[in-house]
Write a structure and sequence with these properties.
This protein has ten helices and six strands. It has a six-stranded parallel beta sheet with strand order 3-2-1-4-5-6. It starts with 14 loop residues before the first helix and ends with a helix. It is of the alpha/beta class.
């Protein structure tokens, strides 16, 4: 029999409400980049698969890492070039600045765990989030990549946390994001759109939001996830239906 997982929950960040809660304290939030901090650039993935001659069903990084060293570097150079071109078209997600300013106000640490390489990540931070501190920043150079939880666990370790990822939230837009978060023991938030709406009811998704700043009221009132849900916690299917119809 599978072990029952209690709903993820964190105490309200509003100090006037925190005293009334017995939920654990949130210690930090880890963000994905493409499709999460910036608008999705999904066309890149088709270009990458064409560049390395693999079908849609194949994972790009898994394929590249399976190649002999000379071919691996050639393939990696090709997809870096695609990302470097796409980064010039990056656009921030709705509510990005509002959420980051709120987290800074509440003193919540922010990390990044992405399968992108570092140049597009640095471009996004310098263009849209100048002055906001993120760290550690886990990029493609860190292995194994998501959906393995190693990147999130590394961030937790660098923050000096002794509870693995259980005091963190992972925010992303893909199955790799929510699965990595779940495997690390973190709560998971899906930034939902029409392309990923099917993940709303995925077993590794706790909550769904349409805009990044939707997370502000959730954190102020106290995070309560949907994995291991009962009648008192959010229904992710209802969340996504409301989000997409707003």
């Amino acid at each position: 029999m599978a072990k029952e997982i209690p709903p993820r929950r964190f105490a309200p960040l509003d100090p006037t409400k925190k005293v009334e809660s017995d939920a654990p304290q949130l210690k930090g939030i880890v963000f994905d980049v493409d499709g999460t901090l910036c608008l999705p650039q999904n066309y890149m993935f088709a270009e990458m698969r064409t560049a390395v001659s693999i079908p849609k069903s194949s994972d790009i990084l898994d394929h590249i890492y399976s190649l002999p060293d000379p071919e691996q570097e050639k393939a990696m150079t090709a997809i870096r070039a695609i990302e470097a071109t796409a980064m010039l078209k990056q656009q921030p997600q709705a509510g990005l600045m509002e959420l980051m300013s709120y987290l800074e106000f509440r003193g919540v640490r922010k990390g990044i765990c992405t399968r992108n390489f570092d140049t597009p990540v640095n471009h996004l931070l310098s263009t849209f989030l100048h002055g906001h501190v993120f760290g550690p920043i886990v990029t493609r150079d860190f292995r194994p990549p998501k959906p393995h939880p190693a990147g999130i666990l590394h961030i937790a370790s660098q923050w000096g946390l002794d509870d693995l990822g259980s005091s963190l939230i992972m925010v992303g837009d893909s199955v790799d994001d929510v699965t990595a978060g779940f495997r690390a023991g973190a709560a998971t938030v899906l930034l939902v759109n029409e392309a990923n709406a099917h993940l709303a009811t995925h077993e590794h998704t706790d909550l769904c939001i349409k805009r990044l700043d939707d997370l502000i009221s959730i954190l102020e009132e106290g995070f309560r996830g949907g994995i291991g849900k009962d009648e008192e916690v959010p229904d992710t299917r209802l969340q996504v239906e409301r989000a997409l119809n707003d």
